[in-house]
Amino acid sequence: MTESSKSPKVPIREFIGSRQSNLFQTLKQPQFTGELILGSSKGEEWTFYLYLGRIIYATGGKHPVRRWIRNVTRFAPALITYLPSIDKKALNKDSLQKCWEYELLNYWLEQQLVTRQQLSQIIRNAIVEILFDVTQAMEIVFQLNTSQSLPSQLVFIDADQVIVEAWEDWQKWQGAKLADRFPNDCPLVRQSDQLKQKTSPKTYQIMMKLFNGKNTLRDLSLQLNQDIMSMTRLMLPYIQLGLIDLISVPDTPLPLSKI
Questions:
Q1: CA distance between the termini of the chain
Q2: How would DSSP label each residue in 156-224?
Q3: Which of 39, 48, 131, 140 could form a disulfide linkage to 166, CB 3.0–4.6 angstroms apart?
């Protein structure tokens, strides 16, 4: 990757749905192929891979590994069990270094272990999560890189559709008075004695087991099969009382260590 292939960084304030749509439209018309890199003031960076102006994948942000595992588990759970048995020699080393998540999905498609419809669901939902995080960041800088692209095109994602979906999720999140809470944070019980007094024994045991600072709100939403907005809103009174805290945690290790 050379610096000369990258455009200057351009700031955008209030990078909400309409401005996101405008940016992707400007890349669709000239059929841009390469990377769209978004960065936040907190140092987070997301990469959208485009082919002829259409999104084929996106990654980055705070928890790329958690996001990938979560969405694979949701839409094609059997794939996770195949990780230890993957033949390392069968993987494309260049693709693996560029975007390991995409290479694994491509490998599984070639092995006929996953359908294109499942891949589309995995990739689409991951992009919606990323766009939600980008919307919550509000102020971003963007940069284009024409020297990097993915070697294959597994699916084509319509930018406007995922932008609308992420914007609707953000509107619901705001409406639930959760705008200053982050779905990538983990709930952790801080005042167990007081929590015990304010809940039933069964609820207390469940909270102590789940709210251990290891599972993010998004992880718990999948594990419990509950809508993340409703789940977090029920948690909010305990958070406001200081009985439960939402803490920032690192990403999980790369699953490639299993290969």
A1: 27
A2: -B-HHHHHHHHHHHHHHHHHTT-TTS-TTSEEEES-HHHHHHHS-HHHHHHHHHH-BSSS-HHHHHHHH
A3: 131
Domain boundaries, the chain: 3-175, 186-247
Q: Is 238 helix (H, G, I), strand (E, B) or coil?
A: helix
State how far the Cα of 211 lies from the Cα of 208, in Å rounded to an integer: 6
| Residue 37 zone, left/alpha/beta (φ > 0; ψ -120 to 50; rest) | beta
CA separation for the pair 119, 121 (Å, rounded): 5
pLDDT in tens, 34-47: 999 999 999 999 99
Q: What phi and psi, each to the nearest 5 degrees, are found at residue 248?
A: -85, 135
- Is the confidence at residue 259, as pLDDT, over 80? no
Average pLDDT value for residue range 136-160: 91
* pTM of the predicted model as reported, rounded to 2 decimal places: 0.93
Contact 232, 181 (CB under 8 A): yes
Q: Strand order of the sheet with strand 10-12?
A: 10-12, 140-145, 34-40, 45-51, 54-60
How does 177-210 read in b/e, with b if 16+ C-beta sit within 10 Å?
A: ebeebbbbbbbebbeeeebbeebeeeebeebeee
H helix runs in 29-77, sequence order: 64-75
Tokens standing for 233?
């809103």
Residue 244, strand partner residues: 189
| DSSP states of 67-104 | HHHHHHHHH-THHHHHGGG--GGGS-HHHHHH-HHHHH
pLDDT in the model for residue 86: 85
